[in-house]
Specification:
- The complex is a heterodimer of chains A (about 280) and B (about 400).
- Chain A is built from 13 helices and nine strands.
- Chain A is of the alpha/beta class and about 280 residues long.
- Chain A has one domain: Aldolase class I (TIM Barrel, Alpha-Beta Barrel), CATH 3.20.20.
- A nine-stranded parallel sheet of chain A has the order 5-4-3-2-1-9-8-7-6.
- Chain A is globular.
- Chain B starts with 18 loop residues before the first strand and ends in a 5-residue tail after the last helix.
- The radius of gyration of chain B is 20 Å and the shape is globular.
- The chains are: A alpha/beta (about 280), B alpha/beta (about 400).
- Chains A and B meet through helix 5 and strand 6 of A and strand 2, helix 1, helix 8, strand 11 and strand 12 of B.
Chain lengths: ~280, ~400
């Protein structure tokens, strides 16, 4: 069984370049704006979309994504509406993989079986659920795999060689390497260390390894993309939206355009990664 | 028909996965998982190590002042005219509450694990003060996360923490209360995993915290049980404690769980009433969900977003509860009932007047429930109320509620 993620990653591998994985918070700052931002992502060079499910208590997120989640919730976003957003996007794009990212409680309250059925029907390809480590696999990971939805696990600098097999065991789609011990939006870790960590993980799995947390610029994307199979950018994109919102949340410019400009630049960085590495 | 059979013992949890029935668990980010596993291993060694136990015992006696007294509250008993009320005097401990019991245990564990820095979250500030105290005693830098709302309403404790050398970081996200402080402490921990020990103050969070904090606090119930047997020659009929996260309550309750004739009552913060959202009665008005590393009863909306809740008492102002309480609720062993802000305030004033003891507003919730049931009980019946802390920290809040300026 292959998913859109598997197919997209295989295609990029054959093209010899890493993936640009872009994160947006679903419903930030409102449903319609967020959908327009999402629709603009593929044409700007995004290869995989991570769609954030807002949660009131995002324990692993820094101030930027915390604020984005609060904007979305204030704008009336719910898990049901995030799924609806995905399916509206999917009506016009059947290729770009969508990965839902967030925390477990809204899914648990929605009901795991109902959630997986609705996610599948909405064209969701994978899940990243921050507070479900392998020890809690029975909750959602195993049911997701049975339903044909990738469960993408986070590996971190604290995941040592002894633990790595356990983390990789039920992971599919790709492995998300968190570049540093910290929250989203922190400063980028030492890139040499990140590259060494990516090699270490690749020694344990044939899955693509994407790196996130701290990548904000095209140059950083280029450097990280030289060794990783994908580069994840979140906070910088969320900030691009925040930057065109006035003090009362009014738009001072088009968020979709602001994000498209940023993502185009990041895409150039990612696309030149291997060229630079080969020099 | 399919009602689960009553367990032979209510004292065997959690299981190896850290679960009490469906509650508890380890719902944390991968970055923290290796630390949680390490903590669990270190704790399992420490609790069976005679040297660790001896050091904790020594500090409990000579530093914290244990055992705390089981005091016959004669004034209150006469006033109410029913069963005999005893206070377990955790307010007399060093730092003024039960929180020191857990902090001494965990600081010794932090030392044993070679950690260099202590972080903690606090609501009323009692746990923050106890954490800052043990950090000072053992020479650790300490950062305490405290909701900005709580910083404002518990200013005496903020000053105490600063005097003790801790850095108090006000948290402005959410409503600026305990939940938000815990989020921020978790963010600190995930960032500083190598050298930092997270000293959780209540019997909640990822496994092994609920079990570990319960074990450190169970000294309350073990002492109270022995003291009652010595003073009255029999076990109490009813024991009562206030439940926020629930550490003082589980500490009192746990040693009594298998004494089937002892009625056990936990008191939730009913705030301004359970009809609206201005309360913290997660077990009476919430539903199971996942927050802060464990599954437990939570105040939340239909979309699984956590609500902020409200209580006059900062220490009870938390939308969740320790997972073992959730399990004890569902199993029917412990009753959990709400007490309103106004009822707690009345108990606070009455206890002060007839006993000459200013109780913490948290503890006043437990006393308020005793005031309801004791008059209907026989005069030879026995009730223990956990006086979890002293109320000096609350005088500003109470004055404001009573419309007085101090």
């Amino acid at each position: 069984m292959t998913t859109r993620i598997d197919r997209r990653m295989a295609k990029l591998k054959s093209e010899g370049r890493p993936a640009l994985v872009t994160y947006i918070m679903g419903g930030d700052p409102d449903y319609d704006t967020s959908l327009s931002v999402m629709k603009a992502l593929p044409a700007s060079g995004s290869d995989v979309i991570e769609l954030g499910m807002p949660f009131s208590d995002p324990m692993a997120d820094g101030p930027a994504i915390q604020a984005a989640g609060l904007r979305a919730l204030k704008g009336g976003q719910t898990l049901a509406r995030t799924l609806k957003m995905a399916s509206e996007f999917r009506a016009g794009d059947d290729e770009t993989p969508i990965v839902l990212m967030g925390y477990y409680n809204p899914i648990y309250i929605y009901g795991v079986d109902r959630f997986l059925a609705d996610a599948k029907a909405s064209g969701i390809d994978g899940l990243i659920v921050v507070d479900l480590p392998p020890e809690m696999d029975e909750e959602l990971c195993i049911p997701a795999l049975k339903a044909g939805v990738n469960f993408i696990r986070l590996a971190t600098p604290t995941t040592d060689d002894k633990r790595l097999p356990k983390v990789l065991e039920n992971t599919s789609g790709f492995v998300y390497y968190v570049s540093m011990t910290g929250i989203t939006g922190s400063a980028l870790a030492d890139t040499a260390k990140v590259s060494a960590a990516v090699s270490r993980i690749k020694g344990h799995t044939a899955l693509p390894v994407c790196v996130g947390f701290g990548v904000k610029t095209a140059e950083q994307a280029r450097v990280i993309g030289a060794s990783a199979d994908g580069v994840v950018v979140g906070t910088a994109i969320v900030n691009a939206i925040a930057n065109v919102l006035g003090p009362k949340g009014e738009k001072t410019a088009d968020p979709a355009e602001a994000v498209a400009t940023l993502v185009s630049g990041l895409a150039q960085g990612v696309r030149s990664a291997r060229l630079a590495a080969a020099e | 028909m399919n009602k689960p059979a009553m367990p032979n013992s209510f004292r065997t949890g959690p299981d190896e996965q850290g679960m009490f029935g469906i509650f508890g668990g380890r719902f944390v980010a991968e970055t923290l998982m290796p630390l949680i596993l390490d903590l669990e291993e270190q704790w399992s060694h420490a609790k069976n190590d005679p040297e660790f136990k001896a050091e904790l015992q020594n500090l409990s006696t000579h530093y914290a002042g244990r055992p705390s007294k089981l005091y016959f509250a004669e004034g209150l008993t006469k006033h109410l005219g029913g069963a005999k009320i005893y206070f377990k005097r955790e307010d007399l401990n060093h730092t003024g509450s039960h929180k020191i019991n857990n902090c001494l245990g965990q600081i010794l564990l932090a030392k044993r694990m070679g950690k260099k820095r202590i972080i903690a979250e606090t609501g009323a500030g009692q746990h923050g003060v106890a954490s800052a105290t043990v950090a000072a005693r053992f020479g650790y830098p300490c950062v305490v996360y405290m909701g900005a709302t709580d910083v404002a309403r518990q200013s005496p404790n903020v000053f105490r923490m600063k005097l003790l050398g801790a850095e108090v970081r006000p948290v402005t996200s959410g409503h600026g209360t305990l939940k938000d402080a815990m989020n921020e402490a978790l963010r600190d921990w995930v960032t500083n995993v190598e050298d930092t020990y997270y000293l959780i103050g209540t019997a909640a969070g990822p496994h092994p915290y609920p079990e570990m904090v319960r074990d450190f606090q169970s000294v309350i119930g073990s002492e109270a049980r022995a003291q009652m047997l010595e003073q009255e020659g029999r076990l109490p009929d009813v024991i009562i404690a206030a439940v926020g996260g629930g550490s003082n309550a589980i500490g009192l309750f746990h040693p009594f769980l298998d004494d089937k004739d002892v009625r056990i009552i936990g008191i939730e913060a009913g705030g301004r009433g359970l009809d609206g959202v201005e309360h913290c009665a997660s077990m009476n008005a919430g539903r199971p969900g996942v927050l802060h590393g464990n599954r437990t009863y939570l105040l939340q909306n239909a979309d699984g977003q956590i609500l902020d809740g409200h209580s006059i008492s900062a220490g009870l102002d938390y939308p969740g509860v320790g997972p073992e309480h959730s399990w004890l609720r569902d199993s029917g062993r412990v009753e959990y009932v709400p007490i309103l802000d106004d009822e707690a305030l009345e108990a606070f004033q009455l206890t002060t007047r007839v006993e000459g003891i200013i109780p913490a507003l948290e503890s006043a919730h437990a006393i308020a429930h005793a005031m309801k049931i004791v008059p209907k009980m026989d005069k030879d019946q026995l009730v223990i109320v956990n006086l979890s802390g002293r109320g000096d920290k609350d005088v500003h809040t109470v004055a404001k509620m009573l419309g007085m300026e101090i």
